[in-house]
Amino acid sequence: MNVPFLDLKTPHQHLEEELVAVFRDCLKNASFIGGKYVTAFEEEFAKLCEAKCCIGVNSGTDALRFALMAAGVGPGDEVITVPNTFIATTEAISQTGASIAFVDIDERTYNLDPNKLEVYLKKRLSGSTSAPQNGVTGSRPRAVIPVHLYGQPADMDPILEIANRYGLIVIEDSCQAHGAQYLSKKENRWKKTGSMGLAAAFSFYPGKNLGACGEGGAVTTSDELIANRIRMIRDHGQAKKYYHDLEGYNGRLDAVQAGLLSVKLKSLPEGNEKRRKNAALYSKLISLLPAPCSVIPSFVPEWARPVYHLYIARVPKREDLQKFLQDKGIGTGLHYPVPLHLQKAYAGNGYKEGDFPITEKVSKEILSLPMFPELTVEQIEHVVKEIKNFYSNQP
Ligand SMILES: *Cc1c(COP(=O)(O)O)cnc(C)c1O
User: Fold this and answer.
1) Measured from the CB, is residue 90 less than 6 Å from ligand 1?
2) Ligand 1: which of 64, 94, 175, 312 to mutate, most ligand atoms within 8 Å of CB?
3) Is the minimum distance from the CB of 81 to ligand 1 under 6 angstroms?
4) Would you say the CB of residue 174 lies under 6 angstroms from ligand 1?
5) Which residues contact residue 212 at a Cβ distance below 8 angstroms, ignoring those fewer than 6 apart?
6) How far apart are CA 317 and CA 321, in angstroms?
7) Distance (Å, whole) CA 71 – CA 230
């Protein structure tokens, strides 16, 4: 039995007619940029995220960058995030002219550890920090980007509280968390990712839980001023054609993608529910594995309703296991094999091995198992059975 890591073909099959109809309509009216499909999708997606506004943009990376810029982040500012994320998070920071600072993750959720954020800020503002680049650039902490990695919400109550106390802007990187929920103890209710920070960034890269048939992204926010600024930034700094109040970017979501996204958005809640079911089965089967399998399943805190963009297991002898599974026709992934602070791109930032021990440890042990809504019970059982086979044959 083959189990692919991801299946992007099946979900489009039963939608084909509807998707093609959108494209036909755009062709017929030659409406490719802006227009009804974009505004309709923006309204629908804002509603799903429980945010007042949604601004469609070209990618998740643009969404992050535009959100930071609209919040006034730029040269002289420092933006804090985790080293356990996709590089787009930090690319967006650098591209505003701000500098990057890292804070380590929680070992169970793999997301920003609020305690470490607090410790970092205390040290940072007393002038003693182990992060080398901050002393060099002389920048000041201005914003924090919690990443809801793997579709698992970051622990937002304490993050928002700390950010508030230190005067930091919070921009959520929700690029892997369309529709995830966080139980706010403070407000005693479930909140959607994308509704908690000043603004949030989403990606519609095809492999994401909500994927376009090409590139796409969006910012959600309930701040009208920020929303209006992003509408300008994505469109060359113009509110009226050829009257430029500022320099912006060509960063719009195009009409075809917006229309296709509206069609696909309808199956997002069901897809997320199926992912949760799949994840629950993985976790159950993995926790039943006998010794010597010491595989750690995904952890779900009681305050999280994740959407499992990825299902992460922590495994011993990872490289060997991955190869074993591959030989059995089971696809897996590594998210991410090299922590950002150890990437060549950031060699000049002065970080070294040992700076973020949890991220470094986790990065050597995590394995992303096949995860998509259409995954069957038999496939999941098969994956876990082969994991068991691997460890039973180990010396
Ligand atoms: C996908 C992703 C992005 C970037 O989104 P693009 O649409 O590919 O630009 C940013 N952050 C995270 C965590 C992502 O997974």
Assistant:
1) no
2) 175
3) no
4) no
5) 204, 205, 206, 257, 260, 261, 264
6) 6
7) 9
Residues of the chain with pLDDT under 50: 130-136
What single letter denotes the amino acid at residue 359?
T
Q: What own/partner pairs with CB < 8 Å and gap ≥ 24 does 283-292 have?
A: 285/380, 285/381, 285/384, 286/313, 286/384, 286/387, 289/384, 289/387, 289/388, 289/391, 290/388, 292/391, 292/392, 292/394
For 64-101, the pLDDT digits (tens) are 999 999 999 999 999 999 999 999 999 999 999 999 99
Report whether 176 contacts 312 (CB < 8 A).
no
Output the pTM of the full model.
0.96
Helix residue ranges per DSSP H, 86-216: 88-95, 114-125, 132-137, 156-165
In single-letter form, the type of residue at position 250 comes to: N
The answer to whether the bond into 11 is cis (omega within 30° of 0) is no
Six-digit token string for 325: 């599974």
Amino acid residing at 106: D
CA distance 15 to 249: 33
Three-class secondary structure of residue 12 per DSSP: helix
Instruction: Give 207's contacts (C-beta < 8 A, 6+ positions apart).
Output: 6, 8
- Spatial separation of the C-alpha atoms in residues 140 and 123, rounded to whole Å: 13
Strand order in the sheet with 304-305: 189-192, 181-184, 304-305
Count other Cβ atoms within 10 Å, centred on residue 230: 29
The continuous run of DSSP H or E covering 11 comes out as: helix 10-13
Render pLDDT for 202-221 as a digit per residue (tens, 0 to 9): 999 999 999 999 999 999 99
- Kind and range of the H or E element at 263? helix 255-265
Beta bridge partner(s), residue 181: 192, 305
Segment 114-117 long-range contacts (CB within 8 Å, at least 24 positions apart) = 114/155, 114/158, 114/159, 114/162, 115/158, 117/80, 117/144, 117/159, 117/162
**Domains in the chain with CATH codes:** 9-265 (3.40.640.10), 268-392 (3.90.1150.10)
Question: Which segments of 177-294 are extended strands (E)?
Answer: 181-184, 189-192, 199-203, 217-221, 238-240, 243-244
- How many whole angstroms from 304 Cα to the centroid of ligand 1? 21
